[in-house]
Specification:
9 helices, Tetracycline Repressor, domain 2, mainly alpha, 184 residues
Length: 184
């Protein structure tokens, strides 16, 4: 429940009282278990990375082909932004924008998240290249571009742009990387 509150409102806009209501506990319980609101927030971010982020990355890594992994990831991302919890954006992206300059520990945690995503994209791109699924000159180094696109989509999701806009962004990003299908 704390994860949801932080995700919806951000760190600064979420009070300890909001968290206590969401978790149905007293403030003393929060401080006893986590030491502070920040301690609870760090635990929530770690939980997010172990669940929501790990599930998304698994879509990339477990697909039967690199191209399928990329398409599955972006399809799921758009669905979650339109109909799911990602309509609030990404907890890590939101928090990165809000807190990175002021908290070195959190900045390192967010960099770990981005590195995991970049590594998964690079692996999918390497598989796609080996399968002949990428445009000439495109390879794993394009993982940086995909991470940037995802982060932009995460920020944009908070404005509720709708499926057509989000899908167009994902399609354009992939069209710039993927080989054109053979003419029939």
């Amino acid at each position: 429940m704390a994860l949801e509150r932080f995700w919806q409102r951000g760190f600064d806009a979420t009070s300890v009282q909001d968290l206590c209501v969401a978790m149905d506990v007293q403030p003393g319980s929060v401080y006893a278990a986590f030491g502070s609101k920040r301690g609870l927030f760090v635990a929530a971010v770690r939980r997010y990375m172990e669940t929501v982020s790990a599930e998304a990355v698994e879509r990339i890594n477990s697909a039967p082909s690199g191209v399928r992994g990329l398409r599955d990831y972006f399809g799921h991302l758009v669905d979650a932004m339109v109909d799911g919890r990602r309509r609030w954006g990404c907890l890590v992206t939101n928090s990165l924008v809000e807190l990175t300059e002021h908290d070195a520990e959190l900045a390192a945690l967010f960099q770990q998240h981005l590195a995991n995503l970049r590594t998964s994209f690079a692996g999918a791109l390497a598989r796609a290249r080996a399968e002949g699924g990428l445009r000439p000159g495109v390879g794993p180094e394009s993982a940086h571009l995909l991470v940037a696109v995802v982060q932009g989509m995460n920020v944009l999701a908070k404005t509720r742009p709708g499926r057509p806009t989000l899908q167009a962004i994902a399609d354009a990003a992939l069209a710039g990387l993927l080989a054109q299908p053979a003419a029939v």
